[in-house]
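U., I forgot to send this yesterday:
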Amino acid sequence: MKLISFDLRADMGFLKKPDINEKIYLTYNMLHKPALLGILGAIAGLKGYEKNGEFPEYYHKLKHLKIGIEPLDSDKGNYTKTTVTYNNSTGFASVEAGGNLIVSEQILLKPAFRCYLLLDTTNEIENVLYKRIVNQEAEYLPYFGKNDFSAWWERNSVHEYVYSEKKPDSSFQIISIFHKDDTSIRQSKESLTEGFDLFSTETEKPLFFYFEKLPIGFNESLLQYEVADFAYTSAKLKKDTLLRDLYLLESENVYVQLF
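Result:
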């Protein structure tokens, strides 16, 4: 198994929230797993959506992958956003709108993420994915949510890590976004910051906490996102914080959560 990362960037992005259908379409702030799987599918050359009600080839073949996401060049996890309004005058708009539908979308500006992947290179598809990422190649153009917003990475942004699943023996730093399992949520619901070692920091910069509910996959019966509560922080966590799927990057001495 190889643990690698690459820095994925775009000038703009639109990761549509499915629960908004009036006046303006909103975007998730953070890249999430289903969106990243689509990008990886484009890199590997797997088929996308072809038939309504059926999941695409890339989802079936990549949904088992363990991935991690770390925001780059953000303001404490937040990205600048703007709103774009345009007309859909193709004639396929709703009858109520007179065939001319005005659409407003919230757009991410210069989103950038370090994407971590745990790959089994004995698996044919994962080996293709590994080689193409290392060589800065893609079968299809990857994009952030819409094909207007192409995404790219530089070859020198690809890194391979020596890693372990060693449990923390002291306060520790997670550099990726992370979510807690149900047990941890029940134990920590008295305070949003319980589990964080607020005074265990080696920097004079103010600590920050970022929270967002993000998709982690699909409910394959209902054909809709399954979501979880995620956090991103500069604070260290207490060693007894209950978190799953932590991987220690040995040379950096920090953790990422791969989910």
